[in-house]
Write a structure and sequence with these properties.
The chain is of the alpha+beta class. Helix content is about 40%, strand content about 15%. It is built from 3 helices and 3 strands; from the N terminus they run E-E-H-H-E-H. Strands 1-2-3 form a 3-stranded antiparallel beta sheet.
Amino acid sequence: GFYLHYSSTELLYAAGIHTFDKEMLTAYREYIKDARHRESLVAILDTLEKKGYKRPEQHYKRLPKGFDKDMSHPELALYAGMYTFLEAKPEGNFFSEKIVDDSFYIYEDMLPLQKWVYEMTLTKEDV
């Protein structure tokens, strides 16, 4: 889902799934075995990173069964969740009505990843 956290010192926007449960991790890994899904995810993450958004750090050290280093983007199997986030200081527009517009544009940027994750979750029953 979409997430917003703010305090007097921090503003955090995020979208996706922070940590997969066991079944969702299995569904995610099955989904990204398809090269089209991997390429789509990489394109989304690259676009987000060019706009200043971050992705989680890889959690696992070794590739799971069914993945090898010679396939395209095997590193995607090393994530324990899939999301993007943006950290900022609460200043400027944060203290005005403009925060609503700013938030809308940030979440609009994040929407492709959220849609990708949602489509992946629909396959969970198939795993």
